[in-house]
Amino acid sequence: MPPVASRPLLSSLAVLALASGVCPRLATAESPTQTPVRAVDLLIVVDTSPRAASTRAAFAAHLPGFVYRLLSVFPGDYGPALDLQVGVITANPDDHGELRSATIATCAAAPSARFAHYTSDQWAMTTTNYTGELAAAIQCLVPIDVVGPTTAQPAAMVNAALDGSVAVNEGFLRADAALAVLVVSDQDDCSGSATTPFACAQAAWTCTPPIDASPGARTSCVANSEPVGLLSIDGASALLALLKPDIQRVAVGAIRGPAAPVFVTSGPSLVPSCAFAGITATPGLRLDAILARFPNHWAASACDASYDDFTETIAAAAGVPITVGERDMSSTCDGGEGSHDDAASPERMGCGCRAGAAGAAGAGVNAAIVLALMIRRRRAR
Q: Each residue of 9-43: pLDDT tens digit?
């Protein structure tokens, strides 16, 4: 399908701002660099094991909130614009790390490629390769009802997806983009030859007492860096560092089971380290160890309702020095007219403000303008 584009009418807002005597930094044809465009490639890795069905469903259901918060970090009109590609793979080695695809016949918002592509610019214009909302397009790619093996190999599948060996993935990974990887799993990474989650834990973790068939609690558990029969922690992280020599350009995250408690029960099997609303998850010690290799990393319990905070980790990798909900335009400026107009910090898109009462009035008008811009942009989609 051709790209879908929309453009809000901004001229009346610009006139309002100028008449009010303030200086909103709306991008113009003469100053296109006022709104830097940040390119981000986001790879989502989904555990398709039978017991992870509730985790997959919860993840898909919460995608609209995650996407809304992500787009708020890259608003385009008063902050960095976004050039985003989102691809989804499974943690099942039988899928070989291939990006998933969908068709409009089965999912109305399906992207025309094996990944969703969304761009915004300084005019709040968006271009996409799908019809409808970005969250819906990603949901089309998430394998909610797909059932794979009992173990999950997210680390190995990330390597397979990004090492250039999978022809259908061509075009997803871009040299100039920040790279974000999010793992969605209710168990630890088992990239290797182990055939059950318990056997994986035996090889992957060192605990006191050791993981064996004896029921009871285990303490002081850590992930082994060189586990027998499994991908090493270095092997799980090396490719991402190779793809992005500036490691700050990588963001990694995981929705997984908390690292503790670790408890063995009859079977033998692992007792979930969290349980909530039908979702259970066992400890993800290897996942945590892999994440820790990167400065921009984030993790949350699979039993939590929200994973929105990963957007801040993505923003850091993309070079956006802001915190969600604390944009420069809402900060207090007291340096007189133009005090926020810092050429060395193009991300600072707040208006240069005037001293005294004019400054307070300007701040109020700026807030109204920004709110109107955001509303118009949302309506245009």
A: 333 333 333 334 433 333 333 344 445 789 999 99
Does residue 180 form part of some domain? yes
The parent domain of residue 212 ranges over 32-317
**Domain membership flag for residue 333:** no
The enclosing domain of 222 has a CATH number of: 3.40.50
Q: What region, left, alpha or beta, does residue 52 occupy, with left being phi > 0 and alpha being psi -120 to 50 degrees?
A: alpha
Distances (CA, A) of 18 to 29, 359, 370: 17, 14, 14
In what helix (H) or strand (E) does residue 86 lie, and over which residues does it extend? strand 81-90
Q: Is residue 201 classed exposed, middle or buried when 0-12, 13-18 and 19+ CB atoms within 10 A define those classes?
A: buried
Confidence of residue 75 (pLDDT cuts 50, 70, 90): confident
Angle at 71 between CA 97 and CA 3, to 5 degrees: 70
Indicate whether 355 pLDDT > 90: no
Q: Which residues pair with 127 in a beta bridge?
A: 5, 119
Q: Is the pLDDT of residue 224 over 50?
A: yes
The total domain count for the chain is 1
Query: Packing angle between helix 11-19 and helix 356-380, nearest 10 degrees?
Result: 170
DSSP 3-state of 108: coil
pLDDT-based confidence at residue 1 (cuts at 50, 70, 90): low
